[in-house]
Amino acid sequence: MSQRSQREWTNAEDVQKHSVHTLVFRSLKRTHDMFVADNAKGVAIDEESHKLKMSIKMRTEYGPVLHMPAVKETREKTAGDPYPQYPNNQGQESEYAATATLPYPSGPGVALTADTQIQRMPSESAAQSLALALPSSQSRIDAQRTAVGVGERSQPLGVSMMSMESGGTKNMALIIKKAQTMPKPQWHPPWKLYRVISGHLGWVRCIAVEPGNQWFVTGSADRTIKIWDLASGKLKLSLTGHISTVRGVIVSARSPYLFSCGEDKQVKCWDLEYNKVIRHYHGHLSAVYGLDLHPTIDVLVTCSRDSTARIWDVRTKAGVHTLQGHTNAVATVRCQAAEPQIVTGSHDTTIRLWDMAGGKTHTTLTNHKKSVRAVVLHPRQYTFASGSPDNIKQWKFPDGNFIQNLSGHNAIINTLAVNSDGVLVSGADNGTMHLWDWRTGYNFQRIHAAVQPGSLDSESGIFACTFDQSESRLITAEADKTIKVYKEDDTATEETHPVSWKPEIMKRKRF
């Protein structure tokens, strides 16, 4: 072995010994030196700062309950016990001491001394007993009554603590926590069928009652418009002129005019003094599905399969606005005097509230998952309802705030009607008709009238329904080519037809 190799082998042996015996202890020493200073240890608590912090914390978090008295012996016990045991007085009077930052007036069940009537800061031991609950005894009730005299609100048993934001600070307040229950629905007498009117040769698609409540008008797939006497149900007049199904009719309350629209893209104005068409409103590119008159302005609004709604000047026949925004056929339109003045429902599953002056969308409601074929405005409340195969939804004007769902009519809902008594009617494609209490959404009656003899069972759809002006009769337009008239059962009482209502937890889907 050469001298150089011996030197390298000796150095390697020295390095090995060095790494085993020395480096381990060096690393340990370094670790020890690193933590010997104990930098993670907190700074010693300053008594004055701690007291200031505690006083501020008590005022901000326990301010509303600082006036409440605490049991004297319990306070002494809990000074060093983080889990105090609350005494059970079982109706006996206890000795109380007011531990608060404000003077507390004397009252029944609260024993005060000269010390407690002086405004002072509580000690740390007293701070731990500030939020102690009093036992369920007469002393607690008396203390609550005394608190009412100070200006605090007395809360019954079964309250819960909730955080409230006020003035930029968080306060703890006691509020009552109750389970949300379904309100009891108003009792409505059941409706019964009392007249079936025949005369049309096709599906009866639309219906309207004139403001004088003497007659009503219907439009049909036989391309005719028929006027019927409301009292007797006899045919008074037939109007011909449309070359396709008549989808909408309405009678003006401001002039002797009848307006109609149909799948022939035409919108007609009929003069009922001469029983002839005096105006046409041209512009829609496809079938016109519905129309409505503004209650205070001479304006007509129509909706069409061309995905638009149009506003017309009744007298000049000029188009005022074309309401664009829907992406599918617009099935229904409603007008009112208040804002928003126009509401449309579409097959694109949306409802739009329109600014009539600007001709633009004010709000778009996208809660429905299927096409919206019916919209109805409540005659007295500032609310409306929309019908879709998924469910019926109620909304609040002017921004379209959601109120509640009316679920259970599992069919394609073609029409909705509501009266002043809060009876909402929904008619569906399968011939079923559900009657609801508007306020609670309770379904108090379901009707499935038999089809006219000679018609197919599949021809049982209800395309339109409306109440007459007295709201004592309900008229429906159906697929069996008949018009059915319903009225309330005068012999029914709440005892004979009770509401099968159960006070259960409210279950309302948000969307």
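That was protein one. Protein two is written in the same sequence-then-structure order:
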Amino acid sequence: MENPRCFANRFVDYKGALLVGQGVEKAVPTVKDLIDKIIRNVPLGSTECDGGLYDGPAGVAYMLYHVSESALFSEHKDSYLKIAKQIIDVSVVYVDGEKDKNMRAAFLLGGAGIYAVAAMVYKALGLADFVKPLTKFRNLWEVCSPINFLECGSDELFVGRAGYLCGALVLKQKLGIEILSMDQIQEICRAIIESGKQYARRKRKPFPLMYSYYGTEYLGAAHGLSSVLQMLLCYQEVLSDGERDLVWQSVDFLMNQEQNCNWPAELGAVIERENELVHWCHGAPGVAYLFAKAYLINKKPQYLDTCIRSGELVWRKGLLKKGPGICHGVAGSAYVFLLLYRLTGNSKYIYRAQRQVETYGTQSICPRSCGAADTAGFAEFLFTEEFKAGSCSVSSVYSLFEGLSGTVCFLVDFLQPDQSEFPLFSVFV
């Protein structure tokens, strides 16, 4: 019976050698052509800025910034940054006029993410003006520090406190400066923990921290427990010993919710194998990043083993039919293999990522770490007729999380896997 959510993976798995290809010099023009297509089609009007970094034009600006940071595209750096500035300038004006201050504090869907990307783009261009969006970002900490600042759920990644902390982490990584003071970070983290404790007590949960978003107790990266805990781990140095214990107990609780290498979208659900979600947003491809962070902090093998099992599931079911993007598409699945490569150094994961890329159509592109050698994989699948004919149409086809801008980020990271990271969701800071 055909799986409604993913294509069958017919690729032969890694046998100790990568696929023979044509090298990086053939891949860069292919990626550049894809970028040119996105630039020609991205909306630049002030009425078309909805969606934030997730599926708005601001996400395209981030993609151009990301590409400009790669030495492989150094000759296009200035032009990409100038276009990124044009796009992000319009988005900044748009969110400056946002009347809902709570939405200005949203990272992936609102102002905080746009201000963060504006600061990165301006700084990369050598503009002193980068301080202005940075200050706007910093001032938002007061908006999201009250425990219940959002009725829908104040702690998740897209609009809540976890997202705001994630933005501060990205800025620290990209700009080399701590955006928030230790006291500000501590206050936000403690609000997250207190919010989770209150909810868990109110709902009589047998574990210390839990959250909901629009009434649903999500577990995955998009709106759920895993990304909230991941951000708390990223800032665990500001927590008390007791608070850290609560976080680690919750990490282990979530690890125990695994069902056949995957996690249900919401707490208490039973995974139906024929309707299984294997997405970054819901399922193992996103939850894996929490356990990667946990492993990087304390080196306990069970966390790495959990990541590896997630990767095995993604190899079987990660050729998704919901498009090329990173949220619930093929590129988001393929990023798991780049994560596992960075964690283990095992070339098997480069091979699997190759399969996904050629799936997408760049045929025979090879990461730097392969010498000039090989390619194929999930990247390979992105470019096949099977994928083009069988995948769902995407409304935000050029966007970062649902469309081709996320694909570009993946292809660039695939070419330099030692530096690869899921966009705006780092575990290596």
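Residues 182-202 form the longest helix (21 residues). Keep this in mind for the problem set.
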